[in-house]
C-alpha cells in the first residue's frame, strides 16, 4: 500500500477525468503536481483497510483450495493451481468491497454539488446516511471479475517459475510440486513407501522412514531389512520383525 497508493489515486483521477467533456483531460504529471506528496497518500488508510484483509482471506483460502485440488499424491498441475487462485480471489475481493468503495470516494476529486468526505470515518458515515448499506457493495461483481483472474495468473506464474528454477526457500520445497518426489522416488512409489501396508511395519513407520533414510545416507549405515511374516519362503534365514520384537502372532484355529 505504501508504494501503490500514489499510483491508485493518480489512476482514479485519470479515469474519471473524461466525465466532463468540456474539461481538458490532464496528464499524469499534472495530477501528481496538483496533489503533492501528502495528496498522493489520500485514502491510504482505506487502502490498508482493503488490502490487508484481502491478503488475510486470499492466501489461506488459496492454500486450502490448492490442497483440495491436488491429486492423490499431493501434486498440483497448472490447471488446479489456476482454479485455486481463481476461487480464492472471489471471497477475498467480494468481502473487501466496502473498504474499496470508501477508498475510491476519498480519492476521487469531488465535483461541484457532490458530497465531500473528510477522512475515513466521515466517509463511512456520509455514505451510510445518504445511500444506505447497499452503497458499500457497489461494484462487488466487477471487483471479483478483476481480482480473481489477476491473482490466479499471479500465483500460477509464481509457482511455475519456482518449479522451473527449482528454488528452495528456507529449506522447504513448494507444496504440491513434483520436484519433492523426483529427487529420490516418483510420487507413486513415494506414496507407497510412506503409506506402507506391510504387516511387519511398526506403527509410526511413515514418520520414522525419512529419519532412517537420513541416518543411512549421512553415516553410511545400513539397517537390517526384514521380510514380511506373511512370506511363503519358510526356509529364509531372515526372521520376521514381529518375532524379534517378541510380538506373538495369533494362530488361526480350525473349527471342527
From TrEMBL:
Signal peptide as annotated in the record: none
Entry's localization field: Mitochondrion inner membrane
Bilayer topology term: Multi-pass membrane protein
Molecular function GO terms recorded: L-aspartate transmembrane transporter activity; L-glutamate transmembrane transporter activity
A biological process term (GO) from this entry: malate-aspartate shuttle
Entry-linked Pfam families: Mito_carr (PF00153)
Solcar repeats: 1-68, 76-164
GO CC terms: mitochondrial inner membrane
Gene3D superfamilies: Mitochondrial carrier domain
Keyword annotations of the record: Membrane, Mitochondrion, Mitochondrion inner membrane, Transmembrane, Transmembrane helix, Transport
Family per record: Belongs to the mitochondrial carrier (TC 2.A.29) family.
Full protein name: Mitochondrial carrier protein
Amino acid at each position: 500500500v505504501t508504494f501503490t497508493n500514489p499510483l491508485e489515486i493518480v489512476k482514479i483521477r485519470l479515469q474519471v477525468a473524461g466525465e466532463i467533456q468540456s474539461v481538458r483531460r490532464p496528464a499524469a504529471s499534472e495530477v501528481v503536481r496538483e496533489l503533492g506528496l501528502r495528496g498522493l497518500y489520500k485514502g491510504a488508510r482505506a487502502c490498508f483497510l482493503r488490502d490487508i484483509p484481502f491478503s488475510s482471506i486470499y492466501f489461506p483460502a488459496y492454500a486450502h483450495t490448492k490442497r483440495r485440488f491436488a491429486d492423490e499424491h499431493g501434486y498440483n498441475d497448472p490447471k488446479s493451481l489456476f482454479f485455486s487462485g481463481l476461487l480464492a480471489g472471489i471471497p477475498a475481493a467480494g468481502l473487501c468491497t466496502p473498504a474499496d468503495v470508501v477508498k475510491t470516494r476519498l480519492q476521487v476529486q469531488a465535483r461541484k454539488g457532490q458530497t465531500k468526505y473528510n477522512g475515513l470515518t466521515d466517509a463511512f458515515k456520509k455514505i451510510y446516511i445518504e445511500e444506505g448499506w447497499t452503497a458499500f457493495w457497489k461494484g462487488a461483481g466487477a471487483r471479483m471479475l478483476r481480482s480473481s483472474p489477476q491473482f490466479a495468473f499471479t500465483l500460477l506464474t509464481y509457482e511455475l517459475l519456482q518449479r522451473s528454477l527449482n528454488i528452495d526457500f528456507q529449506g522447504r520445497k513448494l507444496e504440491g510440486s513434483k520436484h519433492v518426489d523426483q529427487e529420490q522416488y516418483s510420487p507413486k512409489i513415494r506414496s507407497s513407501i510412506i503409506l506402507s501396508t506391510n504387516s511387519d511395519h511398526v506403527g509410526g513407520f511413515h514418520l520414522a522412514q525419512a529419519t532412517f533414510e537420513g541416518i543411512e545416507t549421512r553415516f553410511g549405515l545400513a539397517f537390517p531389512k526384514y521380510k514380511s511374516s506373511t512370506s511363503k519362503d519358510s526356509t529364509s534365514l531372515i526372521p520376521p520383525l514381529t518375532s524379534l520384537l517378541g510380538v506373538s502372532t495369533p494362530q488361526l484355529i480350525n473349527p471342527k
